Structures are given as C-alpha cells and as structure tokens.
C-alpha cells in the first residue's frame, strides 16, 4: 500500500511533545472526526439561549441520557444548572444557516430569527423541523478544563422523517 494510507507516527517511543504541540496536534486530530451538528437550547426566565454543538453523544439507554460539552465562557452555560430543561435539536443539511447563526454569526435572541422555532411543554425553544428534538433536564455536571460536561436525562424525543444530518468535519459542513 502507498505510505499515504498510514498514520504518520514514529516507530520508536519519543519523549512527549511540549504542551502547546500536544494541544495543536490534538486539535488537528479532532478536526478529522466527523460530528453531527445540534443546536442546544434552554431558557433563563423569559430569555431564550442557544449554541451550536458538535460535542454531544448518547450516554445511556437506561436511563435514557445525553452528554453535551459546553464551553464555560458560552452564554448558555450559566442557565444549564441542575434540573434545568434543555433541548438538543439535531440539524438537517438545510439548517447550515441556523448552525452558523448559533455558532456566532448572530447574537442573543437574533439567533432565533433563523429557523422555525416553537417551544416544548417546559417552555424550552425547539426547532420545529429538526431531524430530532431531544428534550432533557440537567442531571449532572462535571467541570473539566475549559468545558462543563452536562449530563441530561431525556424526558421526551420528537422525531421527523428527515435523515440527512448536518455533519461537521475538518472545519466544514458536509
């Protein structure tokens, strides 16, 4: 096989790279991992909050639970307190403008002018035409590095017939 099919790693064990090099190499490695794109939403009082998230996965089927990682500096972080309700809205390919808006191209409530939004029974914003809208309550939180790992207990799931998820890999949507 051509050598381009192999991972570029030395054959012998070397001393660990410095911290900055490890971070950069790890960042480049994570760009190679495709991730589904979701908008995580919640509310604090009358204010709707939301962020684009790619660091999300199912955690357990019993009890049904979801794990999301939220940067501590994100505006939504303070609202994701124990027992708070949130929704993980899984995006379809046509939702790229929604993802961009929640990823920083729009701020505050202006983000919700992108997409067709309603609310679920707990008053949390829900993207009406999402592939799936997974409604949760915060069960646990773990602080780690720059992020908070939020474990959500699934309360309800709304599904559409769409099956063309928006995926993010190497800095681009697929």
UniProtKB/TrEMBL annotation:
Pfam families attached to this UniProt entry: Flavin_Reduct
Taxonomic classification: Bacteria, Pseudomonadati, Pseudomonadota, Alphaproteobacteria, Sphingomonadales
GO MF terms, alphabetically ordered: FMN binding; riboflavin reductase (NADPH) activity
Record's keyword annotation contains Transferase: no
Domain Flavin reductase like: 30-174
Protein name in the entry: Flavin oxidoreductase
Domain of life: Bacteria
Keyword line: Oxidoreductase
The keyword Oxidoreductase is assigned to this record: yes
């Amino acid at each position: 096989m051509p050598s381009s099919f192999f991972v570029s790693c030395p054959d012998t064990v070397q001393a660990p790279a410095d911290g900055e090099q490890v971070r950069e190499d790890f960042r480049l490695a994570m760009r190679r991992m495709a991730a589904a794109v979701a908008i995580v939403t919640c509310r604090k009082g009358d204010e709707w909050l939301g962020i684009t998230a790619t660091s999300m996965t199912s955690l357990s089927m019993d009890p049904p639970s979801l794990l999301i990682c939220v940067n501590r500096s994100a505006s939504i972080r303070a609202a994701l307190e124990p027992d708070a309700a949130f929704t993980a809205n899984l995006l379809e390919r046509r939702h790229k403008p929604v993802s961009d808006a929640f990823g920083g191209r729009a701020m505050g409530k202006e983000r919700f002018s992108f997409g067709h939004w309603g609310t679920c029974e707990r008053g949390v914003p829900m993207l009406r035409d999402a592939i799936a809208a997974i409604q949760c309550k915060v069960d646990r939180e773990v602080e780690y590095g720059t992020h908070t790992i939020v474990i959500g207990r699934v309360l309800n799931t709304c599904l559409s017939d769409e099956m063309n998820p928006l995926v993010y890999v190497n800095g681009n949507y697929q």
